[in-house]
User: Fold these one by one.
Assistant:
Number 1:
Amino acid sequence: MHGTFTDNDLSHVIDADKAHVWHHLVQHKPFESSDPRIIVEGKGMRVWDQNGKEWLDAVSGAVWTVNVGYGRESICKAVYDQMMKMCYFAQAAGSVPGALYAEKLIEKMPGMSRVYYCNSGSEANEKAFKMVRQIAHKKYGGKKTKILYRDRDYHGSTLAAMSAGGQDERNAQYGPFAPDFVRVPHCMEYRKHELGLEHLSGEAFGIAAANLIEEVILREGPDTVGALCLEPVTAGGGVIEAPEGYWPRVQEICKQYDVLLHIDEVVCGIGRTGTHWFGYQHYGIKPDFVTMAKGVASGYAAIACMVATEEVFDLFKDDPSDKMNYFRDISTFGGCTAGPAAALENMRIIEDENLLENCTAMGARMMSNLQALQEKHAVIGDVRGKGLFLGVELVSDRDSKEPVDETLAQKVVAECGNHGVIIGVTNRSVPGRNNTLCFSPALIATADDIDQITDAVDKALTTVFG
Ligand code: PMP
């Protein structure tokens, strides 16, 4: 192994973990007869587990987070220096890295203006939802409180974020949810038959899928709808890029019905989709709110941002004599300076190492490798995504598009593990039908890394499906 872990340390850590840690998103019964995986060390694209086994991480910390890779000394140094100088003060006051990061971030987001710091993607989304509700009360006499969200999109694990959750597997058993969150249909061309739009394709399909949002607005009453919250490329719902024509029509609809557009960049933000800093920037849209988290500091510190336009900000400062006229919200750890200090250095690395360009180039390579696998393996129904953010949907029959049994998709993930590569599987929309392999390697990936990942997938598919 890379580090200096003795057998004694190791068995203690495993015992402590098994006795006391409640892991996220996994069932614990299997740990009665096997050990959980404990990741001990990471460098670049690779991590080492408790047994010294080396893994190529094709999902950036399992949930598309570590965009600049592991073991970045300069980020650790920036955080250390900032911690020694000034670790924390509530964000009612300002901080040096908070101001400098906000300035840098807004430079990358023409049209946006104000950064609200908090800790997680869920929390950033909650901030935007609260602002929409407050605007409804301030500007529309308590109307326009409804927030639309899309089937298959995910916006977080807190209860209001789950109320905006389009993934039924995640939501099951956690209701009742908050009122006035209303679901709109997905825009996934591969499964357009679910929308009754199988006769349309390309741009015509994209426009028709966006019109389904308009139908919901008209059904609910435009004077009741305050905002529409969308992922630029749906992540956990199956790595879904909207078709041509979708986004311009979405923008038009929001404008026509005075609906604020909230773009959730928690996964796509900070370069994940290549070329641009944010997913929405590929489509020329102008959001009112943009939320981001994971890649902001690549997991070196917990930081999330809710970014709003100056027009939104202005709504909260128009009457200083009104004691209720500001955003009455706080996030204690939004005042941690480790976050913006790490984020500033994270951004410098992405710029200096041309990682947006690398992401585009390596994303294209990975897409073409996966498309070649689609020619070879009948089980691959669809390959999709943008930049280094790709999905491979597995189906038992290409005509019916019936998802493969989830246990088979999980076997592919396990087989990739046998070849030393960590990949993910998702979908989350239908409980028990997770059939989409997902890939989000760090933006530093090389051609060799990409080929190693897709070779492992090739071998795994052969082992599982023949
Ligand atoms: N939005 C999206 C699109 C996400 O994928 C996630 C997390 N996977 C979240 C929000 C929630 O982020 P967090 O887990 O940091 O609360």
Note: The mean pLDDT is 96.
Number 2:
Amino acid sequence: MTVGGPAGSSGGFDAQPGARVVITIDGPAASGKSSAAKLLAQRLGIAYVSSGLLYRGATLVALRQGIDVADEGAILALLAEQDVRLHPEAGGNRVTVDWRDVTDELHTDAVDASVSVVAKHPRVRAWVNDRLREMGGSFVIDGRDMGTSVFPGALAKFYLTADPAVRAKRRAGERSTGVEAIATELSRRDERDKRQSVPAADAVVIDTGPLTLVEVVEQVLTAVLRVLPARTVNT
Ligand code: CDP
Ligand code: CDP
């Protein structure tokens, strides 16, 4: 398992000295950012990094210890004690806590319900952002504030949106929870995430509602190829 740096980052653009490429894809829950980011990364032959999984990892360790997720100091103390790591592997990102893989526990209703409370804490945000900025190589990264706060100098920035009802339906297709409960949870999370979810001024905004995933990726790839120096792209 590759640790501390995105897998796949040794090929593609890194073969050219000084050619590091960072592409950001931000947007609200179920706007399609992680699916699009993963496919785009494959097409470009670079790594995919999920910033949300670090927030989910921090939330999981807090919930496991029975800590009040509103208690920033207690969460920070826990993150200093337990080794929460993101492993950006080619097939999808994994998270370990003290080297035990917890990825399958990160997309539960319990984590969904608490993650945006944890993500409001400035020092938790700083902890996540430090982990992301440590990563070398080229990658496509998704989240909420990748294009604004964390990688403002990214080569290309995208912000995906979709109507809340469309997003609830999409997420319900991935969970056993009913669409109404999902819609309520998503709107609560949208509200809590509002502050860090503003599109970058130079982001290309795409409404994914009427589009298939393939159409979204085509739009994103076309925009990326306009600004990328000519190099091989995986087809
Ligand atoms: O895929 P989905 O948008 O549902 O979740 P995610 O990307 O895994 O993000 C989970 C939560 O982490 C979000 O609801 C935010 O509260 C937080 N987050 C954030 O604040 N900033 C980021 N860059 C990424 C995620
Ligand atoms: O990462 P984020 O939470 O923004 O969304 P996702 O997990 O990538 O996408 C949520 C679901 O919507 C997935 O099952 C996608 O296949 C589906 N979808 C999409 O991403 N884009 C479309 N244009 C249509 C559907």
Note: The domain at 21-224 is CATH 3.40.50.300 (Rossmann fold).
